[in-house]
Write a structure and sequence with these properties.
By secondary structure, the protein is mostly helical. It is built from three helices and no strands.
Length: 93
């Protein structure tokens, strides 16, 4: 039971982080092409849902939104808070 749950969570994290990375690259392409962009709300919602590492990797890989303090500080802060929550949960098991 625990192993199945762990597999589901890990699969979810792989897919949502791949989506975050992809969308960051897509948004960079849209910015260069002067097309309609992906909203910041979408990126922050994905980060809260677990895609922080993928979005952060996309920021670094595509050199996109790295000068925006909301992103350069906000995404790592979300990831840090998520780590603290996970640690708290694990400690209290």
């Amino acid at each position: 039971m625990v192993m199945e749950l762990l597999l589901i969570v890990l699969t979810y994290l792989v897919f949502i982080n791949a989506a975050g990375l992809y969308l960051m690259g897509l948004d960079k392409k849209k910015a260069v092409m002067k097309e309609r962009r992906i909203s910041e709300k979408t990126f922050f919602s994905l980060a809260i849902a677990g895609a922080g590492p993928g979005i952060y990797a996309g920021m670094r890989t595509f050199r996109h939104k790295t000068l925006h303090k909301r992103f350069s500080l906000g995404i790592p802060m979300i990831m840090g808070l998520q780590v603290l929550v996970i640690l708290e949960i694990l400690i209290n098991l």
